[in-house]
Design goal:
The protein is α/β, with parallel strands linked by helices. It has helices at residues 2-15, 36-39, 63-71, and strands at residues 54-59, 76-81, 104-107. It starts with a helix and ends with a strand.
Length: 111
Amino acid sequence: MNCIALVADREVARLTAEPIDDNNTGESNSVPVKRSHELCEDRDVGGYLCEGLDVFAVREPCVMCTMALVHSRIGRLFFVEQNHSGGISRYAMHSHKALNHNFTAFVCHLS
């Protein structure tokens, strides 16, 4: 789940106003991230760094990665290739009522 770690690193840097140097060139990149909880002041995200963010993937995440996405509190998942033993297609973990967070998942078809 390198994508979650990257998002978390960027978010921490943005919140602490530290510049990010992705290429070790000495030049910083701005991080123009607006999350849904920043638009609604009455929401308390409790430190979940990926709250409301979208994830784009080529393949459907496995069961373990789907649970990592649930725990990181993403907003939506978009993927192209279905995996019939994956966490979305087989177990519908993204919308399981027993879990304390749900997200919306979309299968994208490329033309």
